[in-house]
Write a structure and sequence with these properties.
12 helices, 5-stranded mixed beta sheet, 6-stranded antiparallel beta sheet, 13 strands, kinase, Sensor_HK_Regulatory, phosphorelay sensor kinase activity, EC 2.7.13.3, elongated, alpha+beta
Length: about 400
């Protein structure tokens, strides 16, 4: 095949000269994937970052691979696709899990051209191109993959915004947990006490409207306090809230019910653009209200009041998904994976503009991944953020069990 070498080399040079992508990290990986997809003429590309635990996660994806953004890669899959010898090699779809294999096939790819990123005796990442037919890779394609792999390797060697995910330090986490807990609990407790003292000391001087407003604020802050305590308890034990009871359920109905029970202020700016029906999802329906509330509250917090927060949903061959879209300040591309880390805040310190313990999105990820799904954030075209949650399809899961494939 004819490879667009000139466009690829000029694109890589421009990548390092650009003030945004030149700093590396996810913006650089994303642009590199688009360049590689065009140069190779393939339908999709992806990068999976590997952890010291032997597992991984898809941190960049383009084209027909974008459905996998944020998806965990299990240790057994990493072990199956990692091979010694030449850094670029062919991987059959049977080496990945059945769900991913079926999804990749349904989107028009037949195998994966994989490049192993080697650095100082370790493999921090894998680069994959999804090949549209059974023909083996030609020398030009192998050369392009080597160039792309060398560029990714350079970004990792210079630690230019990579890795995007970091192993936590238990002692630091415990110290930070105590600091965050004391800071975040203090605010609602102070407000509740202040309004309660006002009612106690000045009941006779307050009119009925002022008393009702004080009671409303106390109730609102009490709800926030209870929710925060639930988050802190769940995060401290490194588990999502409660015991899951997975099974097939109607995601559209669950989303409509959850949206109807959002806080009134948020509900007024929430716009539903849901389909009439979707294939059944497989997971714990009871977790959907908490997950939606976290994502909607996050969108509300970082966007102007006059802008709508939109809820959409859809499906593909193996998953059903929903998205919360806003037109807010957006999230920097290099931060889209950090936001799921425990206690992470985009703006830290006592003077930060937005409150919160940095636990909401962490617990969303934990909750959804315990249901064999995944969650991702990405910048929205035209400004703002897209938060996407994917769950396995319930009908596909039942069919697989019935046929002995699961």
């Amino acid at each position: 095949m004819e490879v667009a070498y000139r466009e690829l080399t000029l694109g890589i040079a421009a990548l390092f000269n650009d003030p945004v992508t030149g700093r590396g990290g996810l913006p650089a990986l994303d642009r590199l994937m688009h360049l590689g997809q065009y140069a190779l003429g393939v339908p999709g590309m992806a990068v999976a970052e590997l952890h010291s635990t032997g597992a991984g996660r898809v941190i960049a994806a383009t084209g027909t691979a974008d459905w996998a953004l944020g998806r965990p890669v299990q240790p057994e899959v990493v072990a199956a696709v990692l091979r010694p010898g030449p850094a670029t090699y062919r991987v059959e779809l049977g080496a990945v899990d059945d769900e991913a294999s079926d999804q990749i096939t349904s989107l028009g790819s037949r195998w994966i051209l994989l490049h192993r990123i080697d650095l100082d005796g370790r493999t921090p990442a894998l680069l994959g191109a999804f090949m549209p037919d059974e023909r083996p890779a030609d020398p030009d394609q192998l050369a392009v993959m080597a160039l792309l792999g060398a560029t990714v390797g350079r970004l990792y060697s210079e630690r230019a915004g990579l890795p995007v995910q970091h192993a936590g330090d238990d002692l630091a986490d415990r110290e930070l947990f105590i600091a965050v807990t004391s800071h975040e609990l203090r605010t609602p407790v102070t407000v509740i006490k202040g309004y309660a003292d006002t009612l106690r000391d000045h009941w006779g001087q307050l009119d009925d409207k002022a008393r009702r407003e004080a009671a409303r604020v106390i109730g609102q802050r009490s709800d926030e306090l209870a929710r925060l305590v639930d988050r802190l308890l769940a995060a401290s034990t490194d588990t999502a809230v409660g015991t899951l009871s997975p099974g097939p359920f109607d995601l559209v109905e669950a989303l409509r019910h959850a949206a109807a029970n959002l806080p009134a202020d948020l509900r007024r700016r929430f716009r539903l653009e849901l389909p009439e029906r979707l294939p059944l999802a497989y997971g714990d329906r009871a977790t959907i209200p908490n997950v939606l509330t976290e994502l909607a509250t996050n969108a509300d917090k970082y966007s102007a009041r006059e802008q709508a927060v939109v809820l959409t949903a859809g499906h593909d061959r193996r998953t059903v998904y929903f998205q919360v879209l806003d037109r807010g300040i957006g999230i920097a591309p290099e931060q889209v994976h950090q936001v799921f880390e425990r206690f992470w805040q985009a703006d830290s310190g006592d003077g930060r503009r937005y409150g919160g313990a940095g636990l909401g999105l962490y617990l969303v990820r934990k909750t959804i991944e315990r249901q064999n799904g995944w969650v991702s954030l990405r910048p929205r075209d035209g400004g703002g953020t897209v938060a996407e949650v994917r769950l396995p399809r319930g009908d596909v899961k039942r069919d697989a069990r019935a046929s002995g494939e699961a």
